[in-house]
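Duplicate of #3305? Posting structure anyway:
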């Protein structure tokens, strides 16, 4: 089967949608599909066409102002479809849907987190716009049950298919753990919690910063990998509440992040909106237990008392209590449960097979 993936987010950018599109494309390729990706130029040094990791990548320019982007993308896709045969077009993110009007190829759409939920929350003129956009796909996928909850009806079949992870990429390396903990000045009796999140509203990192005021365990240190609009706010709160007990590494490429999971003892997901969190899945694959909020797909990942604890969103006191609680547990045992869970439920090959089965249903 020949599949065209369309996404503005693709490596070398970072983030959940980027990881989803890349790993799903790789897994589909590995089970025998022919996958092509259409994405935007990030800089002038990139090529208009190249093959990377076995995937053909076509890049388009986005010029002028934002409301014309959808038109430009659709024009590019029409040209690409004329020059290549595709059985399925699979769009990630709303922008490519806006002017989409290719009629003779089944369209699949994956509804990723923040943009959709913000539009639903604001309501008003956005609801008719969403009705128009969601009338276009034949198959409507989402990586959390929450993202399937659309407040109006439309024809597309709705299916929850979670994000995934390649567990073997994140196997803990004790040699790397020792090296990095030395570099980070983490003592043997200290526990390190890792957050690999962009510091933007939906990820709730500011609430974790606020929670440090209430954390009682004095052996905990925090490692943040990511930047964003809340970076300075988070830094200021940590300086006040958790001085000398936090590390801000800023943004890193995905392959640079992996080793830091080995250096860590647990991971924290303080999200306000979330699908089946890819950073959470990666932490689990690295044998880390989790503390996370009861939003979106996070409760799918965390089983209370087995591989972590759930807390209320936007509640620093509850978050601090759950962090203190998990630090009293056997973190290694909980981490093993995390690893087992992702291997059984969230391998990308399993996710790709589920997705392919849905594609095949469209083509019947």
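Output from current build:
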């Amino acid at each position: 089967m020949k599949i065209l993936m369309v996404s503005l987010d693709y490596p070398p950018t970072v983030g959940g949608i980027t990881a989803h599109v890349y790993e799903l494309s790789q897994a589909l390729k590995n089970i025998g599909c022919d996958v092509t990706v259409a994405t935007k130029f990030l800089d002038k040094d990139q090529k208009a066409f190249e093959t990377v990791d076995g995937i053909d990548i076509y890049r388009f320019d986005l010029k002028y102002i934002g409301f014309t982007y959808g038109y430009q993308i659709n024009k590019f896709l029409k040209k690409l479809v004329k020059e290549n045969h595709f059985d399925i077009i699979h769009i990630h993110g709303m922008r490519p849907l806006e002017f989409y009007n290719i009629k003779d190829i089944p369209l699949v759409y994956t509804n990723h987190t923040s943009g959709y939920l913000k539009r639903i929350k604001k309501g008003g003129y956005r609801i008719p716009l969403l009705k128009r956009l969601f009338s276009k796909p034949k198959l409507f996928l989402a990586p959390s049950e929450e993202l399937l909850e659309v407040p109006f009806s439309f024809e597309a079949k709705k299916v929850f298919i979670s994000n995934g992870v390649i567990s073997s990429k994140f196997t803990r390396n004790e040699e790397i753990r020792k090296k990095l903990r030395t570099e980070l000045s983490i003592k043997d009796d200290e526990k390190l919690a890792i957050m690999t999140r962009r510091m933007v509203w939906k990820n709730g990192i500011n609430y974790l910063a606020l929670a440090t005021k209430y954390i009682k365990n004095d052996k905990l240190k925090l490692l943040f990998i990511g930047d964003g609009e809340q970076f300075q706010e988070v830094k200021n709160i940590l300086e006040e509440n958790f001085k000398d007990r936090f590390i801000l590494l800023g943004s890193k490429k995905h392959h640079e992040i992996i080793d830091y999971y080995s250096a860590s003892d647990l991971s924290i997901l303080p999200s306000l909106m979330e699908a089946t969190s890819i950073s959470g899945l990666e932490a689990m694959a690295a044998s880390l237990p989790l503390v996370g909020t009861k939003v979106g797909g996070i409760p799918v990942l965390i089983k209370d008392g087995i591989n972590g604890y759930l807390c209320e969103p936007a509640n620093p006191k509850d978050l601090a209590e759950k962090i203190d609680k998990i630090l009293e547990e056997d973190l290694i045992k909980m981490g093993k449960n995390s690893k087992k869970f992702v291997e059984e439920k969230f391998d990308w090959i399993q996710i790709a097979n589920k997705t392919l089965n849905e594609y095949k249903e469209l083509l019947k």
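Confirmed duplicate; merging threads. The two ends are 13 Å apart (CA to CA). The first strand starts at residue 2 and ends at 7.
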